[in-house]
Amino acid sequence: MGFKCGIIGLPNVGKSTLFNALTETNKAEAANYPFATIEPNIGRVAVPDERLIQLGKIGKSEKIIPSYMDFVDIAGLVQGASKGEGLGNKFLGHIREVDAIAHVVRCFEDENITHVSNAIDPINDIETINTELQLADIESLEIKKKSLEKKSKQGDKIIKDQISIIEKLLENLSNINLIEQNDFFEEKSQFIKTLNLITIKPMLYICNVDENSVQNGNELSKKVDEYAIKQNHNSVVISASIESQIAELEDNEEKLEMIKEMGLNDSALSKVIKSGYNLLDLINYFTCGPKETRSWTIKKNTLAPQAASKIHTDFEKGFIRAETIAYEDFIQFKGEVGSRDSGKLRQEGKDYIVKNGDVMHFLFNV
């Protein structure tokens, strides 16, 4: 399991340039005019994780298989998109299909690259798009409400409760309030998930800055950061221009050298994935052996049987126990045998909550 992250933003903010850099392809056409992207481009990228390399060396594995993340490059939204402006509702539909949203915001001045409103104002850009997303959800909820009202004439209590939830959601959205699933009890939260609302998806703001501002950001990116904090969202600063230059290099050593020369610690890919993992409360556990070392993505607080089901559903059905070694112990004691001899291999049952970096072997019987 990975996750699907949709890249959105106004036209000409650097979405497709960033997508090409992240996926190291030229699949998305980067052009200086609105709607260069019509159908969403999808790129699958390996999640960078140095731990995999270390595990693979110790396990003398033939293959190393990382977790993956899908980026979806969605066309530029404009004011009025919820009413069909630009390429409107079609693109809003694409956003509903992703797990998280990376909103690219233009935080650089460049007279050679046009802006749809002819002014660089990142907060106004964010609010323009957020308004369209809210309007799209309001329309979707009103349609759902009408459908349920027709059924509610039969006096079904569950349907009446669902209408009540929709009415509260509509009130929040109409007052430009963010929807928080934590405001609802678990059973209501489950119903909200079925509505597939855009505005409830985890949001990451990506401040696309000029090359000189990539280390510390600039006044424009700081405004976005302050806005994100107020809205309980995350933000990262990147330069799509720099990332596209890095992506053109074929040798990994050269890429790392260029990242260091720019005074950076991480590539944009690492920044976005780390932020995405935090947004969705994701962690990784590992399996390691001679055939392969592999990373598996799960939600935080996942129990061992459910974590095992990521490998195969039979592992969960016939779960007996999990042999578990913390990553640090696996490295320190040079693998499973050393960890076992040092008392670091644990036998965990059905109630064990898998930790980030656990190296696991599942015993099952079907």
Tell me what the structure shows:
The protein is flat. Mean pLDDT is 83; it is low at 26-38 and 84-88. The strands form three sheets. Strands 2-4-1-5-6-7 form a six-stranded mixed beta sheet, with helices on both faces. Strands 3-9-8 form a three-stranded mixed beta sheet. A three-stranded antiparallel beta sheet has the order 11-10-12. The chain has helices spanning 15-23, 50-59, 88-96, 122-152, 157-174, 186-194, 219-230, 240-248, 252-261, 268-280, 304-308, 313-317, 327-332, 336-341; strands at residues 4-8, 41-46, 63-65, 68-73, 100-106, 203-208, 234-238, 282-288, 292-299, 319-325, 346-348, 359-364. By secondary structure, the chain is α/β, with parallel strands linked by helices. Helix content is 42%, strand content 19%.
How would you describe this structure in keywords?
14 helices; flat; 366 residues; six-stranded mixed sheet; single chain; alpha/beta; 42% helix
Give a quick rundown of the structure.
With 366 residues, the protein is of the alpha/beta class. It contains 14 helices and twelve strands. 36% of the residues are buried.
Secondary-structure blueprint:
Elements: E1 4-8, H1 15-23, E2 41-46, H2 50-59, E3 63-65, E4 68-73, H3 88-96, E5 100-106, H4 122-152, H5 157-174, H6 186-194, E6 203-208, H7 219-230, E7 234-238, H8 240-248, H9 252-261, H10 268-280, E8 282-288, E9 292-299, H11 304-308, H12 313-317, E10 319-325, H13 327-332, H14 336-341, E11 346-348, E12 359-364
Helix pairs in contact: 1-8, 4-5
